[in-house]
# Entry
Amino acid sequence: MPRTAKTRPKLVAVAASKVSQAEAQDEGLGRGRHPQNLYEQAYEAIEERLVTCQLPPGRHLALLELQDIVQLGRTPVHQAVTRLAEDTLLRVHARRGLQVAPIDLARERMLLRLRRDLERFVIRLAAEKSSSSHRNQMLHLKRQLRENQSGMTIDAFNVIDRRLDRLFLAAAGEPFVENTLRPLHTVFRRIGWLYHTKVSPDDGLARTIEVHLVLLDAVANCHVEQAIKASDELIDFVDRMFDVLEREIDPVLLDCTLQDFDRL
# Structure
């Protein structure tokens, strides 16, 4: 008996520009944007939600749910998740989806020692090697901090702080350390957010801004030893935050799954 040929779907005369937005977005190509730009956008969107605990430590979620949260396609979100898992900020569980890694204060305080040494290395290089363009950008950020410090929120400060971290890395000109320092910056930016919003909201940002201004001034003026001293003072300030957090923070803010035990 002769086999009846199946009707093939009509795929002819479909220009590349007519690929559906959903398909383009899923492949990280939506609206003409470069895939690398979408990956960076996904990484930064997820990172921001980790820092501000919009994605609370301990939370379980699916990749599709994360796509909905950041409004980006599967490919860039998957790439960002892979990177954040390598950074130990997310956990990937086979057949169980994703989890925001709970905060371990003891571990993160230990990692602060690593950050101290890496920051010394980067700050020394930045003070020694920064170009006039880098120094002009530092002075611009310094003015922004000084002019807005009285009413600055922690979220507004974190925007400047992120730019400052990247500027110091760019001025240092040593990309090898970026992959290690970038997740550490995220870890301690979240620590600062928790400290200023959940534990000591009445303290304000005066001291936080002050230590950053001193560091900016030293690096921008190529004062190497003063810059290293200012970097150490910044790390010491963060270290003292842990004293308060360890005493006063609600453990549920470090791991939201503890709420399940409270209900038992």
Notes: The first strand starts at residue 60 and ends at 61.
